[in-house]
Specification:
single chain; ABC transporter transmembrane region fold; Rossmann fold
């Protein structure tokens, strides 16, 4: 992760970045701002109309002059027209800020995050809970999109409204106007101070929110295990603990944000009372007309609205800044080094040359590993749990990069190859199967983009999956549900094997590929695989050594080192570590 992403951004820095990110839709923002200004200008028509109408009625009471009903009617029509146009402009502004601005911004930001995840190393995804990533992509981005609406609908509208109202108030009488605006700097200063405090609270809240998402995702994904071990109370206690911290952080954030509006409302009410008293005195002394006082009072009430909107907007922005901080940390995470050289199209020779690797850069997992696999060989990797078998495959696929040493494919260093093309050289069947919510046909066809139905059916036959697929309610069109619970674990494994058959990659990686099938099916798959592996380089990770006795080469890995190497017969004749593992498995069967 880059140094830049290891620290929190300042509020101003984050706001500047938010504004920079919305430049592609600047036209919509400018149009929305223009509509906002027009709406604010029309809003002052009402007080002006009331001012003139009040003076007409007041003059009637003072002088007995007849009331000009035509003028009163004209003023009412002007006010009605102004309010109708204001309503239309408000609708236009809502459409711009929600249907265009926020939606476009949200979509674009989520696409950026999705693209970013494809360029991040596997180590980042492995070390970050899935719920945390979902929280940033869904919850945090939604809150960030709300900022666009807040900036246009509250901040810009509020600031423009305050400026225009202030101008009109001072054009009427400076004393009354000063009574309204004199307390504004104090209220804004207090609001800014409280907003700074609430920013940290909202940042802590978003962090706990990510932890909550991670816990929920983990709890539901392991639902069967929780039930099997009667861990419901333990999970409940853990959930209660996270929920309590969540509640405290959220309460503090809302409490601090909620203080802003009452403070501004309090100062506005004081200004309102001051205007009423001062206006009454000035009207009695004939310094201003009664209509002017009424207009100033109406402006004073209108002055409170934008200040309260700004207060709410400031609280919302602080909440959003915490979300933006987390999203920008993700977007600024250091990506994998880009390599653009195409992958070789040779025979499939693989060579590890003094490879060293550790996940945490402290504890070595692979130590000075060297071996060579000739084209077309079937290589089995065996050894105790934690010995480094899967890590070898991760390095071969460049899910992780080596700390030192080199891995060559047909004489080309894999660190110089484009990752996508490199991984296209391998077909994989893992012990942990992965199927998505879709039809059986779609899941098999996932292995080849332009696969025909005949090819999919043939791949299923080769993997001995065709017989059970035809027993499903809709055959190949049967929909596998989200959790893949409508087919068995063994059937899921067969589908992933069929997917690998269809991909027809020049090299294969099989990680306990038959661990979830019965003995009879395993024998059938082994025969089919033997035919598939002809002419292809294959790496087989196996715990059941009976499945790899016909391998061309067996690598015995322990503590990240190849301790023995050779064929099954050669290793058994040595009577070493491999022999002890092999014999122990048969001891368990006795």
């Amino acid at each position: 992760m880059s140094k830049k992403s290891n620290r929190d951004y300042s509020a101003w820095r984050t706001i500047c970045r938010l504004i920079r990110d919305i430049r592609p839709i600047a036209w919509a923002l400018i149009l929305a701002a223009f509509v906002c200004v027009c709406s604010v200008l029309l809003s002052v028509v009402g007080p002006e109309v009331v001012n003139k109408a009040t003076d007409i009625i007041y003059n009637y009471g003072e002088t007995g002059a007849p009331i000009d009903m035509y003028e009163i009617g004209r003023l009412c029509l002007v006010a009605l027209a102004a309010y109708i146009v204001m309503g239309v402009l408000s609708m236009v502004r809502v459409v711009l800020t929600t249907n265009i601005t926020s939606r476009f911004y949200t979509k674009g930001l989520r696409i950026r995050i999705s693209d970013k995840l494809t360029r991040l190393p596997v180590s980042f995804v492995d070390s970050t809970p899935n719920g945390e990533l979902l929280s940033r992509m869904m919850n945090d981005v939604s809150n960030m999109s709300n900022t666009i609406y807040v900036i246009i609908d509250t901040l810009i509208d509020g600031v423009v409204r305050i400026v225009i109202i202030t101008y009109f108030m001072y054009s009427i009488h400076w004393i009354l106007a000063t009574a309204v605006v004199v307390l504004v700097p104090l209220s804004v200063g207090l609001s800014a101070f409280i907003s700074a405090k609430s920013e940290k609270s909202w940042h802590d809240f978003r962090k706990v929110n990510g932890e909550m998402y991670a816990f929920i995702e983990e709890d539901f994904s392991g639902f069967d295990t929780v039930k099997a071990f009667n861990l419901e109370n333990k999970q409940k206690i853990k959930c209660d603990g996270i929920s309590e911290v969540y509640r405290q952080k959220m309460r503090r954030g809302y409490m601090l944000s909620g203080l802003i509006q009452p403070i501004i409302a309090f100062t506005d009410n004081i200004a309102y009372v001051a205007v009423c008293i001062a206006g009454g005195v000035l009207a009695v002394k004939n310094y201003v007309s009664v209509g002017d006082v009424v207009e100033i009072i109406l402006f004073a009430k209108m002055f409170a609205g934008p200040l309260e909107s700004i207060a709410n907007g400031m609280g919302s922005v602080q909440h959003t800044l915490a979300c933006a901080n987390r999203v920008y940390k993700l977007l600024d995470t250091r990506e994998m080094a880009r390599t653009d050289d195409p992958a070789p199209h040779g025979a499939g020779e693989v060579r590890f040359d003094h490879v060293n690797f550790s996940y945490d850069k402290i504890t070595p997992v692979i130590k000075d590993l060297s071996f060579t696999v000739k084209p077309g060989q079937k290589v089995a990797i065996v050894g105790p749990t934690g010995g480094g078998k899967t890590t070898i495959v991760n390095l071969l696929m460049r899910f992780y990069d080596v700390d030192s040493g080199h891995i060559y494919i047909d004489g080309v260093d894999t660190s110089t190859l484009d990752r996508a093309q490199l991984r296209g050289l391998f077909g994989m069947v893992l012990q942990d199967t992965w199927l998505f919510n879709g039809t059986v046909y779609d899941n098999i066809a996932y292995g080849k983009r332009d696969a025909t139905r005949d090819e999919v059916v043939e791949a299923a036959r080769q993997a001995h999956a065709d017989f059970f697929i035809n027993t499903l309610p809709d055959g190949y069109d049967t929909v596998i549900n989200e959790e893949s619970t409508n087919i068995s674990s063994g059937q899921k494994q067969l589908l992933t094997i069929a997917r690998s058959y269809l991909a027809n990659a020049p090299m294969l990686i099989l990680d306990e590929a038959t661990s979830n099938v019965d003995t009879r099916t395993e024998l059938l798959i082994q025969r089919a695989m033997d035919e598939l592996l002809i002419g292809r380089t294959a790496f087989v990770i196996a715990h059941r050594l009976s499945t790899i006795v016909n391998a061309d080469m067996i690598l015995v890995v322990d503590h990240g080192e190849v301790v023995e190497q050779g064929s099954h017969a050669e290793l058994m004749s040595k009577g070493g570590f491999y022999t002890s593992i092999y014999n122990s498995q048969y001891e368990l069967l006795k």
